[in-house]
Amino acid sequence: MGRAFEFRKARKMKRWSAMAKTFTRIGKDIVIAVKEGGPNPETNARLRAVIQNAKAANMPKDNVERAIKKASDKDTANFKEVLFEGYAPHGIAILIETATDNNNRTVANIRSYFNKCNGTMGTQGSVEFMFDHTCNFRIPAEGQDVEELELEMIDFGVEEIFADEDGIMMYAPFESFGAIQKELESRGLEILSSGFDRIPQVTKELNEEQQADVEKLLEKIEEDDDVMNVYHTMQES
User: Fold this and answer.
1) Is 28 domain-assigned?
2) For the chain, what is the domain count?
3) Which of 60, 71, 198, 236 has the fewest beta carbons closer than 10 A?
4) Residue 39 domain flag
5) What are the tens digits of pLDDT across the range 72-127?
6) What is the CATH classification number for the domain harbouring 43?
7) Which residue range(s) make up the domain with 58?
8) Is residue 10 part of a domain?
9) Whose CA is closest to 44, among 22, 23, 66, 72?
10) How far is 152 from 177, CA to CA, in rounded Å?
11) What are the start-end ranges of the E strands in the chain?
12) What is the C-alpha separation between 67 and 70, in angstroms, rounded?
């Protein structure tokens, strides 16, 4: 198994945010997708992907339809996707994906978390290069031969594929998302969920006390309503 498998395993073992926050994040994804490509999922590939993820998260269909309708309203604020970078204590690099309708607020909040937890907020590009930007897809495992599927999907950019209790996972470079989505749909394969990850190229092992220092900062960042995802180079224990 490769780095994507180990990364996913570590992330799954970690605590996940409350369901309410998951729904809030999906709601923002819907707004971004609709503003970008319109409210029709048949002609908006990004919106199709978000709807699949909403279904996987057990978000009620009414909530999804309401979010799409709201996002279509011209008065609804658009969310800008902004990336923040920095260092936690003990040299751990942190990459933060946000979706915000008020960048000044988000910048001030993120900076305050770093300052309060002995971290350092970095400049653009200071740690992003330490992470591989990937896309992922999950499909049902039933009736699929993983090795055969891997050989077929290599041509569309898939670099790592494996089966786990959730189905078959595929990982590929970020830019391969559209080609893989299109191919899976043309084959009539159900996409259970899809998304993007930033996988650290190298991780650093810390002792328990040092891990606690980093976790303190991570928790503050993850609790912020504007934060969508947080990635770091600390080795998960």
Assistant:
1) yes
2) 1
3) 60
4) yes
5) 988 888 899 999 999 999 999 999 999 999 999 999 999 999 999 999 999 999 99
6) 1.10.10.200
7) 3-72
8) yes
9) 72
10) 16
11) 80-88, 92-100, 120-121, 131-139, 160-164, 167-173, 193-200, 227-232
12) 5
